[in-house]
Amino acid sequence: MTTTQTGVPTEKPAIDPHLRRLAVVVVLGAIMTVLDTTIVNVALPTLGQDFDASLSSIQWVATGYMLALSMAIPLTGWAVQRFGARTMWLVSLGLFIAGSLFCGLAWNVTSLVAFRVVQGLGGGMLMPVGQTMLARAAGPDRMGRVMSIVSVPAMMAPVFGPLLGGVVVDHLNWRWMFYVNVPFCAFALIAAIRLLPRTDERDPGSKLDFLGMALLSPGLAALVYGLSEAAEGSGGLRAMVGTIGGAVLIASFAVHALRKRDGALVDLRLLRSRAWASAVGGLFFYSGAMFGLMMLVPLYARIVRGDTALEAGMLLAPLGVGAAVMMPLSGRLADRHGSRVLAPAGLLIMVTGTVLLTGIDGGTPRLALMGAVLLIGVGHGMLAPSLMAAAYQGLPRASIPTATTGSNILLRVGGSFGVAAIAVLLQVAIRDRIPGASGNLNEAAAGQAPALLMSAFSDTLWWAAGIASIGLIATLFLPARPAAPAGE
Fold first, then answer.
1. Which residues are registered as beta bridge partners of 3?
2. 14-198+265-475 fold
3. Per-residue pLDDT tens digits for 230-275
4. How far apart are CA 230 and CA 245, in angstroms?
5. What are the structural domain ranges in the chain?
6. 237: Cβ contacts below 8 Å, ≥ 6 apart
7. What are the phi and psi torsion angles at 3 (to 5°)?
8. 64-65-70-74 Cα dihedral, nearest 10 degrees
């Protein structure tokens, strides 16, 4: 509800046809980029066996993609201002199509990870560019409902990503996980050319923060690399150099961004906004736990239970079902009542579902597993649109691009850290539980010591619950009510 000057409450503006068409274009373009964060999860054991790779090596097929998303996102705010949202949307979608094609042609793990990075560089800008276009068109009164639309790709990923990946791995060559993107995204490209308005807000004089880019993107890459190398017994030096070097680069970027008055790659002065700081803090830890779970559950199904790739994918389907039920409702509730109660409640439900999964054993019925995953999906559907809407509370229109850039960076980096951290923790748990084990996926898939393997997965699930719990603490600082945009 909004209030007129006479104090009479009025209904919030509806979603008009122009905004609806814009939302269709954004969802069409972004859905495959988000699906590609989960589609490979059920294929990791297959890829690991085909390439005889350890879990810490093969997880880079997932982590490299998400890290590339993170590295591309810092460019988004400047690129939208300089070239316009429509142009950047078309360019990013074209790059994603090219990266998908080359992933299908990869000949080893190194080439596949390299082409996944190319794919991620294109896909990394699609979601924040689309989010910027929708946020500008929606205005503050419709932000919650629009963010629930933006969340549709995130909702679809856990449903269709693992299922599609399972069908491909079981019945086709794994390369078709990437080839399938080409015709779908080509259709999305045609739709964007036809439906996106040519008139666009842009500033041809906008300058790129080259120093910020040189510090932030390599810093993100080095930090995640260092964490992943920590899983290797002989990778201690590389892990230390990567972690410390990445932290130093990111800290240097923070100093640079705070000193730079205008045009910083990410405006860290947004941290003064309680709503933005709390929302992105919650998004960071939530995405870390969520993406970690979306890798862990299919691995458990295939390695411990001996499920097919499709059966493993079906275990994640309830996550999307729960989100699909809750997201439209949570968007309206966030517009009306704010995110202070909705987001913490969603994270609490997500943590509860994860804790239930820690009790898995060889006799756990499939329906019980799917019930716990459904509970996680309900929490996901409550908190994702409410946190994304909260990140814009009280911000002026001019701050939307950089706010979108900053929140998406932390969302993707959180996901990257989540996948890398969960992979490291699982590999360490397998080594601790099974004497002589190295964590190699061929070794784990051989079915040795299933009870000890289940114990390792249970330990790692507790870590995922702990990561989500940190996000729960961050959401407790969200403002109680939606704030009016500053200066408007």
1. 9
2. Growth Hormone; Chain: A; (1.20.1250)
3. 655 445 677 788 888 888 998 998 888 888 766 677 777 777 777 7
4. 14
5. 14-198+265-475, 209-264
6. none
7. -125, 135
8. 110
